Write the structure tokens for this entry.
Amino acid sequence: MSEEKIKKIKADLVELDKLVAKLISEVGEDVPMLKKNLENIMAIVTYIKYSLGMDVESE
Amino acid sequence: MQEKVEFWEPHIENISRKELERLQFKRLKRQLIRVYEFSPFYRRKFKEAGVTPDDLKSLDDLRKFPFTTKDDLRNYAYPNGGEFLTVPPSELVSFHMTSGTTGRPTVGPYTANDIELWTNLMARSLVAAGVRKGDVMLNAYGYGLFTGGLGFHYGAMRVGCSVIPWSAGRTEGLVQALVDYKATVLSSTPSYMLYIAEVMEKKGIDPRQLNLRITCPGAEPVPAELVRKINNLFNLKERGGGTRQCYGSTELIGPGAGMATPCIEDLGAFQMWTDHFYVEVIDPDTGEPVGEGEEGELVITHLTREAMPLIRYRQRDIVKLSYISTDCGRDAFPVIQIRGRVDDVIFYKGTKIFPTAIQEILAKIPEVLEYQIVIDRRESEHKFILKIETPFPSDALAQRIATEVQLATFARPKVEFVPPNTLPRFEGKAKRVVILE
């Protein structure tokens, strides 16, 4: 995969991360299914960020 | 047949060593801050040692920080992570633990992020080993508190394999499942692989006729001779596969901390995923680092684990670490050979005997079906006995075994032959040392 494409994916992942975090805060505790599944999506996003080295890019 | 090299996450697996060190430093710094802030155990330990995360200015500075030992885990981590936890207990989604045969069990608690990390590291390991989407894996590691079963299960499903979650035991049924499902991958302890082949031969089924292409032994040392033996038993090379050992432990995360690629399986070695586990090799007596390629104790620091990160954990494995360049890539990740375990060392008449040295010798001798090391200390004159199970006992074989073992261990055993099928077989971790006191 080209550097340019990776850069684009990283930018989209940052947006995805923000979106999932926003959804988690919005659903609160009312619908456990939504909260737990969104948290699982967040765990997957967290690993992808590790894999792409995004966790250390801002440090 | 040449295997095609594939990567689960090529961007990180093909990172340069320099880039990897930069990544390690940033993650290490962050992890030290995390444990200092949230783990009462590490805050206390760091204060006693007079260090803070600010003292880490380079990777080598990690040596200023104190070691963590198995006793620390037994005393301060049981049952749910205790003083080691860096998250609220409500964030934990799972636990694994050791059997506790030598004391209180050692626990491994996981957050959702830890499970995701483990799943991906197992997937990375399996792909590095040559496992692919569409493979049928019979997983004969124990499911339950032991990490082997679920670790392989998570990773293989993520890769896209069909997993048969057999666990260990019911070996005759397992053999039938290998045949019926046309399993292409077998994961279990190496001892159990040998036993499975033995049961097949007794049933009149040739293990070489199975569809197996890859085996993933682990949870015990897998020296080069054992790799060759398993390859031959199941005819793996003919199908373009081989025997790729997996490394891990409950304390690390489970299996998936390291894996052999096709390029290094013949070394009886694996590559360690040091973007998530920072490694040091030290002299077990002095705690000082040893040089590349020298034997020493493996020390691990979690760089990304969340629930219970460990800093400078003494793994008790005696290893040799080196960096080599191969056609399988991943050159930034160290190649590690296990030479033995500190805990397994047998003290006999002033000599240290590593059971793995004996295992390596006996794996080369086809007449040996099984063996047991007996140290008899019941009388003032201690005895070192090697029970050898073979259908072909002879004085020449006894002499050969005694001499080769003496050359490797500096202690000459008394070789006693026993008939086939008399020594114990193992579905889980093998226990071939008996101490009589």
